[in-house]
Amino acid sequence: MPSPKLTICIDRGGTFTDCIGFYGKPGAPETREFVVKLLSEDPSNYKDAPTEGIRRIVEMATGQKLKRNQPVPTDAIDSVRMGTTVATNALLERKGERCALVITKGFRDLLVIGNQSRPRIFDLSITKPEVLQQSVVEVDERVILLNSAASIDRVKPEEVSDAKEDPVAVKQQLQRLYDDGFRSVAICLMHSYTFPDHEALIGEIAQSIGFTHISLSHSVMPMVKIVPRGTSATADAYLTPCIQKYIEGFTSGFDDGFKNGTTKLQFMQSDGGLVPVSNFSGFKAILSGPAGGVVGYSATSYDDGQDPVIGFDMGGTSTDVSRYGGMFEHVFETTTAGVTIQAPQLDINTVAAGGGSMLFFKNGMFVVGPESAGAHPGPACYRKGGPLAVSDANLYLGRLLPDYFPKIFGPTEDQPLDVDIVRAKFSKLADEINAANPGDAKTVDEVVYGFIKVANEAMCRPIRSLTEAKGHNTSHHTLAVFGGAGGQHACGIARNLGIGKIILYRHSSILSAFGLALADVVHEVQEPSAEILSAASIPNLQQRVDALIQSCTAELSEKQGFAVSDIGTEIYLNLRYEGTDCALMTLKPADSWDFESSFVQLYKQEFGFSLPDRGIVVDDIRVRGIGHTMNTEKRLTPEQDIKSLTIRDVDANVCESVTSVYFETGRDDNVPVYLLHKIAPGTRVNGPAIIIDATATVVVEPFCSALVTSQHITITVGKAEKKQITTEMEPIQLSIFSHRFMSIAEQMGRSLQKTAISTNIKERLDFSCALFGAEGGLVANAPHMPVHLGALSHAVTYQMNYYKGNLKEGDVIMTNHPSAGGSHLPDITIITPVFDKGKIVFFVASRAHHADIGGLTAGSMPPFSKELYQEGAAIKSFKIVTDGNFDMDGLKRYLYDIPASYPGCSGTRLLRDNISDIKAQIAANQKGINLVTSLIEEYSLDVVQAYMAHIRANAEDAVRALLKQVAVKHKGEDLKAVDYMDDGTPICLKISIDEKTGNAIFDFEGTGPEVYGNTNTPESVCYSAIIYCVRCLVAQDIPLNSGCLEPIDIRIPPNSLLSPSETCAVVGGNVLTSQRIVDVVFKAFGACAASQGDCNNLTFGKNDVSKGSGNGWGYYETIAGGHGAGPGWNGQDGVHTHMTNTRITDPEIFERRYPVLLREFSIRHGSGGDGQYRGGDGVIRDIEFLEKDIEVSILSERRVFRPYGLHGGKDAKPGLNLWVRHVGDKVLTLNLSGKNTGLFGKGDRIIIQTPGGGGYGAPGGEAVAVSNIAQQKPVVIKASGSLGAYKEMQEST
User: Which of 47, 99, 646, 775 could be a cystine partner for 184, CB 3.0 to 4.6 Å?
Assistant: First the structure.
């Protein structure tokens, strides 16, 4: 009988490389294990950490000494499985292969523009990650979809017309790239997901020239959306050569076992499956390391029929969160290091900076992260001069014990953690905090524990979002904890979330490596579809699925050697409702082809409703082949073990020592310390206690108990007595309440996004949700739309005064009128009072942009409106719900009948969508009510309302400090500025600041009168613009609430452009004049040059021919432009600025949904103003219409007056709107001016050239005086996974 061979699993992380080898199956009693943990980088001792780890394991297993300078023999190794950060690091550090992109003509800058949003809405200096390609070639080819969702002449799904490229010209273009030294190329053409022929041909040409790596986007990921598919193909071209070079270097450290196949080499993909080395590609390797951890805890912490599990992986540099409920949860589009990847990935969310999260006391609040101390210099205790971090707090409080921590610090790398420097630094910080709060002096213990509480709450906030966003109750989960720092926070995190059970596996500190041993080999195939799911289409779908199954099985059996009995398949259809863009990857039911029921159930869980009147479209067919590898005969979860054990309390003799630890209840000097390997299975350890493993510390808090089994520590979390919180301001609680209030607004936003149906809300996130006090003042507003920031409070206050106490529980108010706190009419606001014991104690509100509410033109944004009624439904106050009853008749009257009664006007053209979205807003408000009610139950009404006031005061103090700083800078002189609308109307501003009090007057006297047009701006929008500017100018994160405006007296002349009479048209004020107000404010402060000062609002659509149905169609978008330069930064090209940041629809979705051809979407080079720091360039957007009689409207500014430069910087170019019009046999090019509408014919085009941003400082001049406004530094750790995607959308909308 042949001797057994080793299976070796390796997780190469950023700091440490974890290795574990097996003889036998993981977890089996007879299995022998060999564990090695070593530094990922140690060039003085070894070249490659995984090779060195394998060498050590082979030595341990065989007893043979192996020399480091000789190839490692593989005769004792069956397989090596590896998770690696090579691709991730290459992406983060931008050290991938030099590559080029081949793309359809007109789109050379598409990946630079991306979705046109900026990363952080309050950063004046916009920073976007660099694209991966170093060169771009445009190919003159085009695929045209013959049927859009809105087409009047429907043909077969996804049928196309193609204009072939010239192979000779393409070869010449590629040859030039090759001659320039490029060897890796990505090819991504419009609609290649459904028509790949052009890409395939270009790929053949590239191969004939000699390119060594060719990434075809339809092969990389055949899914709709050219931007993420293009970035995925580029990432593959950029990263895969790096992976291949690493693998070549790795295998060169061994004998020929890997090369001749006698020893298998497999890598973990981001989707949680293993692939042979020959199939491993860069863009699927981004989560290669963390994926092993998810596989590990899913197998060691979850049992069928038990609560689902939240994975909490807290390491030194990051904290990752995921969820497992019997199936791996995948996402198909995520962004890492600024690069959007379209590929199946486990939904792993980086939510914080782990033990390295830095600690600050800012503006009277305790702040944890998001900046990280990293591995170098690391926390203060690492002896490298680092800042205070979470690990230091745990050390000070006694939760980390230096005697049991590796002594690897100091110049000689043999010293323990430095307790003395930590004590000194925290003592100094405590003195600073007490000096700022003389009436509430705290001990150092209390200060340090305060940071732990704030850190725990900061990590709980995204965990709640992850679970609640998918319709799951957070408390109905088990917490699986791993990573080096997780055990110190487990009890606190679980208690905050209401979770009662924690599981730590014995290999928790190396779980990502251990998980590789439990992973299966996968092979996936996917192809696009465009069929309607029905009984008639199922046979064809079955045939296609059978062919894909055969492909998977052949790969796994014939090429990878799996027995057919060890191969399983999962069948998925990527389904969506017709007219929506939210597709869900739906698993085939076990015993039927009833995909419809599964999809509807999944859709209801995800979004809270279904759309039974709409067909279901099959976007993609996907088969996941699974080769089962190391199936363990024994369950690795603790439940069976617990049932067989006799449980007893720990013997006092097992206690290793006692130590002093600080808990919520105070400092305890007699906390027992136990070594895990000395505790027998079946032993219960009651808290408080500390359990030490070889590489992890577990803190068992008071009122908790830990049960040790053969493989696990299971902690039962008891309910501790909470410290009584008073109404007095306390900085720790201030930080915690700041998180809780913001969490309410954020979860309202998630609810609205989930349950809404329209693209504006679901995809572009053109909405805001907020919480208000009983008097109408803003408490918390999740950072969605800047233009909504201050305006919502006016709407709530108006309704309070309107009803004067006549609101009852169960009432919901709808409004959109400018004189009632509205912005422009498409922004409908839903307001719901929150009652406690029959009294209104809070309000919640949501404002969302509806694609149409009637009026003169489709989209309800007519360029030439003169009266408010021409812009659609105008509602001052309407109880849409009374005593819990929804008034459908009243809603139809307000949205359809009344607007249609005016001359030349229509009622809403999208009544069905309006109703669905309004119901979604009502549901979002109810979510907010539930969360506010829970907060009141937890803390009491008096405490919650007191901290509402404290947080407002905190924001007020920050703004006053800013204004005092500016007053000193300008020696008490008034700040003045003026700018002009394109019609010549001036906006004048004088800012007078009291240096002693920080009070300021923003006086707009001299601003022009209201206009007979639509650029009039409601006062509420002016307030929004000012609160946005103030928030940008404050050099730190502050709570966003009404306190920001408390020091500011805003004076607006009545009947002016900024305070018009209530019948004036205002649609342009919200999207155009608001931008000019911002320009004027920043000009007065001297903060930066003007950005494009425009939203470039484009609408087009058709009325429904059947009178009264409200079922026409319309489209609305805003278009990016140039970003203004400032002190120390160049402006960004092609990005949204200031009062808007909505994403733009992907070109392929755009053409699939509407009868249009997007000819060009590119940077308008040279449109930014010159200067020492150049202004950003605008964009060119060229749209051809494929049907006749489409009503097109453009509403724009900065077509006359240029965006200004500052301090000698040059002005930017103005914008230009052109109509390429077919008149008989002639083609005319007409200037549409800034505001116009027209009925476009088939073949007509609109070309929009957006303004650039102004320059800053004289071109070529000496250094200019820097602005008095400091800018925030970029954070180190950013959210990722589905949470990161939503956060990016939220902050960039």
Answer: 99
